[in-house]
């Protein structure tokens, strides 16, 4: 609205101020000119009366005709003069036809007349004519020391006309002044506020991020200095915003590239900032607590972190705590973020200590595992060979049975040594990898056909789901077949009868994704961090066929093959709910 703008307010202020001054001035001028006209009229009439009385007192003027002739020359044509000389009354004419003569009765009965004649005092007053009630102004002065008097009177209409004319002139001048003031007020306010309007538009541009906006400097007064300061402010704001943006990008890059999980929380427990390791932790927490992440409008803070946040807010100091999730050991430290006098939030840093503890455990268990794996076959070889040497086995069939056991154990030792050698070659990069273009339909059909017989014997259903945008992919077919063999064989081993194994293969433009899920007994949470380690074996109580024996190196070989393909492998499992292995391999150029 116009009157709410600076231009309207300034113009209205100037207009009201000038109008108030003109109003006061008009009232004072009207009062002044009203009394001024009356006084001037009285002075003029008194001056005329004085002149006439002086002429009468002059001895040269002793005839009425001469006196009247002289009076007509000196008086105002619109006035009348009455001269009383020894009770003789002489009356002059007037151009104002409405101005009648005063009656003899008025002169005889009016006290002011006797006051002039007897006390020799001049008078001036306003009266109404007895004949027609016309208002007149009359003055009187004595003549010849009380022997006579001169009265001059004039209609007040003449004074009213002069007053009305003066009033019109005053109101006309006031109207012209108000019009000029209005024009000047709008011109002045527009000229003053035009730079302010430009600054307002520039300020809106700044709020939209247009920091290069400049205000034109058209004057060198305070507004001009304000424009210079505004331009400097815009430049400084752009500099600081760019610095903050760079710092934010740098900090975001650092946080995103950190191996530790970082979560920034406000006082209410809302997650403000997370990095990929923290997102992985939250995703696993949702999985463990049977919460569908897609059904959540916004991510919920895990209860463990919420309890720790309350401790941080109440104690206003950092809290260190260890969290176990999906077999991983996370050490978390939560530090309060202060806002002057209170805690406004906290930042939680979670470090996955599983690898360190795994390496410690690996160093401690490697020798014992190798010794344990070799001790049993060596003991059997030694015992059965001694039985043959000592002729404990009497018949040929017994000797053949002992020899068969020695042969099986030697083969087992050979498999163990070969798998250890394979792992060593993979670790040192001596195993050749041949990346060829492979038809996924043929490849997967061969894999399913390979295990269909074993699955049928155990009444286990193998379901293959394919989502292939491209039917071919580039990888080492022999190595990847070993991956499928080990994973499907593990699934068959740990899936009960009438169970189901589901294989999902997705081939996208960027990567190959495979998921092998079973509904078997699952893996204990505390064992999940170690399943890809050498010599890891499932608990016999969870294995459907306890007679099946393995070296504990299959999953370790799988992980090494996936790593050599620059891929990643992961596992999710719950006891009595099944296990899901999944891996991703990025596409490479054909070698």
Give me the secondary-structure topology.
Layout: H1 6-57, H2 64-74, E1 79-85, E2 88-91, H3 104-109, H4 111-119, E3 123-128, E4 135-143, E5 148-155, H5 156-207, H6 222-257, E6 261-266, E7 271-274, H7 276-288, H8 303-315, E8 319-325, E9 328-339, E10 342-352, H9 354-389, H10 396-428, E11 436-439, H11 440-457, E12 461-468, E13 472-475, H12 477-494, E14 500-507, E15 511-518, H13 554-564, E16 568-574, E17 578-586
Parallel strand pairs: 12-14
Antiparallel strand pairs: 1-2, 1-5, 3-4, 4-5, 6-7, 6-10, 8-9, 9-10, 11-13, 14-15, 15-17, 16-17
Structure notes:
- With 591 residues, this protein is an alpha+beta fold.
- It has 13 helices and 17 strands.
- The protein has a five-stranded antiparallel β-sheet, sandwiched between helices.
- Helix 11 packs parallel to helix 12.
- The radius of gyration is 60 Å and the shape is rod-shaped.
- 22% of the residues are buried.
